């Protein structure tokens, strides 16, 4: 009986660790997505500002 209780406990720990791993992975993916979105926004602003500068100076 103790053996089965131990297996159940180990399974719960494994489930908890997998959940924690998935949450960490999701957080990393969110951070990467935010970095990409910021980079796109910065690039877009640079392009728009160059275009606006050309229009104002021509």
Characterization of this structure:
This protein is mostly helical and 58 residues long. Helix content is 97%, strand content 0%. It is built from 1 helix and no strands. The longest helix has 56 residues, at 2-57. It starts with a helix and ends with a helix. The mean pLDDT is 78.
Q: Indicate the mean pLDDT.
A: 78
Q: What helical percentage do the residues reach?
A: over 70%
Rg over CA atoms, rounded to whole Å, is: 25 Å
> What best-fitting shape do the alpha-carbon axes yield?
rod-shaped
The assigned structural class equals mainly alpha
- Contiguous low-pLDDT stretches (5 residues minimum) are none
> Beta-sheet strand percentage?
under 5%
Tally the helices: what do you get?
Answer: 1
Number of E-type strands: 0
For the termini, the CA-CA separation is 85 Å
Question: Which sequence of SSEs, written as H and E, runs from N to C?
Answer: H
Largest sheet: none
Write a compact overview of the structure shown.
With 58 residues, the chain is an all-alpha fold. Helix content is 97%, strand content 0%. It has 1 helix and no strands.
Structural topology:
Layout: H1 2-57
Structural key phrases:
Restrct_endonuc_II_EcoRI, mainly alpha, type II site-specific deoxyribonuclease activity, 1 helix
């Amino acid at each position: 009986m103790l053996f089965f209780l131990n297996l159940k406990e180990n399974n719960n720990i494994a489930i908890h660790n997998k959940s924690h791993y998935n949450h960490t992975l999701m957080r990393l993916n969110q951070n990467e997505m935010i970095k990409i979105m910021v980079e796109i926004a910065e690039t877009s602003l640079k392009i728009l500002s160059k275009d606006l500068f050309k229009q104002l100076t021509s």
